[in-house]
Design a protein that fits this description.
Structural class: alpha+beta
Number of domains: 1
CATH topology: Arc Repressor Mutant, subunit A
Strand order of the largest sheet: 4-3-5
CATH superfamily: Winged helix-like DNA-binding domain superfamily/Winged helix DNA-binding domain
CATH class: Mainly Alpha
CATH architecture: Orthogonal Bundle
Strand content: 15-25%
Number of strands: 5
Largest sheet: 3 strands, mixed
Length: 146
């Protein structure tokens, strides 16, 4: 995991950002997370590593990390969103409606579809995000056990 941490820290440094104690804490929390976390959850967990970690700092850091493709927002069925580390390149997510587990799908096969949308609408498509919701295998097994 140290390699992952160092790779992410290097990405911040390469773009002129210092690796402050609050940023270290946020990276550690995101690396340990098994599901997307809200900024408030990141703050609460991050205070273990940096006692004075504030919510404003978390939001600002997430904004920087999102711009550098270190994290991606994940939109959940209940309307709230969390943040998860992202893989390099274009990704999509499959999100469990119950436990909020996320599987990241690297790559995108929507090129032809987006070209048709552009033709039909006259829009110059500049980006998109896709999240698929359903029940993960663990939640499906839990349903069958009941």
């Amino acid at each position: 995991m140290a390699t992952d941490f160092e790779a992410l820290a290097d990405r911040l440094r390469e773009h002129g950002h210092k690796l402050t104690q609050p940023r270290r804490a946020i990276l550690q929390v995101l690396l340990a997370a098994s599901k997307p976390l809200s900024p408030a959850e990141i703050q609460a967990r991050g205070q273990v590593f940096c006692a004075d970690l504030g919510l404003v700092t978390v939001y600002r850091t997430l904004e920087v990390m999102e711009a550098l493709d270190v994290v991606r927002p994940v939109h959940l069925a209940d309307g709230c969103h969390g943040y998860a580390l992202s893989s390099p390149g274009h990704t999509h997510h499959v999100v469990c409606e119950r436990c909020h587990a996320v599987v990241e799908i690297v790559g995108c096969d929507l090129g032809d579809f987006l070209d048709r949308v552009a033709q039909r609408t006259g829009y110059a498509i500049t980006g998109h995000w896709l999240e698929i919701s359903g029940l993960c295998a663990d939640c499906q097994r839990a349903d069958k056990a009941v």
